[in-house]
Amino acid sequence: ASFQVKATTMLGGVTVEEVRAREPELRAAIADTLPAKTPDDIQILAVTAVGARRRRLLQGGVSVEFAVAGFQSQAQAQQAATTLQSSSDQLVTGLQSRGLSSVTSASLTQVVAESSPLPTVPSSTPASAAPALHTPAILTVLALALGASALRW
């Protein structure tokens, strides 16, 4: 089985547009906080704006939900989750050095180590429509296998 870490971090001082424009740099900065991880191991799941109701000086912020894949055991994933929880300053520094100089803070608000979901194969045809689309093909195969006379009715 494969394991992953899902986390949400709050970034202060930046906008959603700035973060989305610098997604490769964000993935690299997150990867730098974790030993043996590369930007390719990081998937950004959501980037959303957060209001600045508490303090006007905060100027809002951005919530970034991400997943880190490729852990071989639950223990490795849990260790990475623990590392992420203590790496906010390193993440801010990494983002600032990669062009997101307006980032003022990073705060991990959620982190979970879990089994990675099995990859899903996207289907272009809804399951409910599949039998109707394939019926002629099935009848053709049956006709060839049983002989045309077996399917006359």
Describe this structure in words.
This protein has five helices and four strands, in the order βααββααβα. Helix 2 crosses helix 4. The C terminus is likely disordered. It is α+β, with helices and mostly antiparallel strands and 153 residues long. It is 36% helix and 27% strand. The termini are far apart. It has a four-stranded antiparallel sheet with strand order 2-3-1-4.
Keywords:
153 residues; 4-stranded antiparallel beta sheet; single chain
What is the distance, rounded to the nearest whole angstrom, between the alpha carbons of the first and last residues? 52 Å
Largest sheet: 4 strands, antiparallel
Would you list the SSEs in sequence order as H and E? EHHEEHHEH
Q: What structural category arises from helix and sheet content?
A: alpha+beta
Biggest sheet, strands in spatial order? 2-3-1-4
Helix content: 25-40%
Mean pLDDT: 80
Number of strands: 4
The low-pLDDT segments are 54-58, 128-146, 148-153
Question: What overall form do the CA principal axes indicate?
Answer: globular
Radius of gyration over all CA atoms, rounded:
24 Å
Number of helices: 5
